[in-house]
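INFO batch 0412 | record 1 of 1 | parsing
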Amino acid sequence: MKDKIIIDLGQIMDDLFDATQNFGGAFKEGFRSHPGNPFFQWDDSVDYYPAYSYPPANIFFTPDKSLVFEFALAGFSEKQISLEFKGDYMMLNARLSEDRTGDDKIKYLKHRLKFKEIVDQKYYAPEDKFDRNAVRAIFRNGILTVSIPARKEAESQKEIKIEIVKEEE
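INFO prediction complete | emitting C-alpha cells
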C-alpha cells in the first residue's frame, strides 16, 4: 500500500452521528436563562443548526431577539415553498416545477446552479421562546426571509402540584 490515502468512513459516520445526537441538547443548553439575561444565553462558538448544503441559508438574531432565517431559493416561486411548525421545529419544503425535473438528460458544459427539491428540512425554533402567531415570511428576488419574533416572556411549563398522601398500613 504505497502512498495511498485511507479514509475511515466508519469514523466519519460515527462523528456525524454523535454531532446530530448532541445538537438538540446543545441548542437547549444555549437557551437557558441566566441572571444577566433572563431570556437567552448564547455561545457564538456552537453551531446550533444542521449544515444543510442546500439551500444556502443565513440564520441570525436581530437586536430585538427575533430569530431570522434567510434561504436562497433561486428557481422556486412562493407557491412551490411551504413552511410549517411541527413541535419545536420549523419545517421547510420546496417542490420543483415540471419543467425542472428533466434536467438529467442534458449534457452540461458547466453545472454550478443545481435545482433540487427540499424535503422536510428541520430548523429549531422552540415554541416556548418564539411567538409563532407573529411569524413573517417574505419571498423577494429568490430570497425567503422568515422572521420569528421572540416572546415577551419565555413561557414556562405550568406548575403542577403533586399531592403526597400517606399510605395506610
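INFO post-check: The mean pLDDT is 75.
INFO record closed
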